[in-house]
UniProtKB/TrEMBL annotation:
SUPFAM superfamilies: NAD(P)-binding Rossmann-fold domains (SSF51735)
Family, as annotated: Belongs to the short-chain dehydrogenases/reductases (SDR) family.
Domain of life: Bacteria
GO MF annotations, alphabetized: 3-oxoacyl-[acyl-carrier-protein] reductase (NADPH) activity
UniProt entry tagged with the keyword Ribosomal protein: no
Keywords, sorted A to Z: Oxidoreductase
Name of the coding gene: fabG_6
Organism: Ruegeria atlantica
Protein name: 3-oxoacyl-[acyl-carrier-protein] reductase FabG
Enzyme class: oxidoreductase
InterPro entries given in the database record: NAD(P)-bd_dom_sf, SDR_fam
One Pfam family from the record: adh_short_C2
Catalytic activity, EC: 1.1.1.100
Lineage of origin: Bacteria, Pseudomonadati, Pseudomonadota, Alphaproteobacteria, Rhodobacterales
Length: 259
């Protein structure tokens, strides 16, 4: 039986991925921190697709709550979680000068420590690989970490957030090594996909237009990447930047006008 836990699944990309997984035959545990009503709506939509769903609250800044989240999801859905999407994230501005211990802790705890603890819980379920027609192992479990295209294009902006996401990318690769062949671990790096809460429409449009492809990504592009990882049984430890090529941006003052 396919069972998924998606963190931050009440809204935005988390919701899109939860609904996509339901369409792919997964029962879904919808984690939320503050979006109780949207999470309930996501649950109702999953159930309307004929799948089992439950909303689970947890503050990812509270490790005691993180420790119980995946076991609670498995109990509610009636068996081990086979797909974990570490999507929930805190994204707040700081830089080297303005970063504080609080901004460090908020970003590292939500974007790195919580996924690490949930990865440990996924491993502790004891999933065993299946076997394909050729007699080779097939991973039963899949973890998808939502990283950020910033790990491919470093800047000094959003400093502690970026450090946390760099750590999550390292966790993706090292846990892919540690958990094979039973569990595959991959990452998605979104670019300008959904307008930020503090971002103007004009700025968001300009951000999308100034990527290499002159467009951003849509939620359907993110779920397509998730679908690829579901189906690609030989892929682990990989990052797909779904960002309109934003991480390839090269038209900077040091190269423009030079021959």
């Amino acid at each position: 039986m396919a069972r998924a836990l998606v963190t931050g699944a009440g809204i935005r990309l988390g919701r899109a991925m939860a609904l996509y997984l339901a369409k792919r035959g997964y029962d879904v545990a919808v984690h939320y921190a503050t979006s109780e009503q949207p999470a309930a709506e996501t649950v109702a939509e999953v159930q309307a697709l004929g799948r089992k769903a439950v909303a689970l609250h947890a503050d990812l800044l509270d490790e005691a709550q993180v420790l119980t989240l995946l076991p609670r999801a498995a109990e509610a859905l009636g068996g081990p979680i086979t797909c974990l999407v570490n999507n929930a994230s805190i994204f707040e501005y700081d830089n080297l000068q303005s970063a504080t211990r609080q901004s460090w802790d908020r970003h590292l705890d939500s974007n790195l420590r919580a996924p690490f603890v949930l990865t440990q819980a996924m491993a502790e379920q004891g999933l065993q690989p299946g076997t394909d027609e050729a007699g080779e192992p097939v991973a039963i479990g899949l973890i998808v970490n939502m990283v950020d295209m910033r790990v491919r294009k470093l800047t000094p902006e959003f400093m502690t957030y970026t450090i946390a996401k760099m750590g999550l990318w390292a966790l993706t690769r090292t846990s892919a090594q540690a958990l094979s062949p039973a569990i595959r671990v991959n990452a998605i790096g979104p670019g300008p996909t959904m307008q930020g809460h503090r971002q103007s429409q004009e700025h968001f449009n300009a951000q999308r237009a100034n990527t290499v492809l002159e467009r951003g990504s849509n939620p359907s592009d993110i779920t397509a990447a998730l679908g690829y990882f579901l189906d690609a049984h030989a892929v682990t430890g990989q990052l797909l930047c779904v960002d309109g090529g934003q991480h390839l941006g090269w038209k900077t003052p040091d190269v423009l006008g030079l021959e």
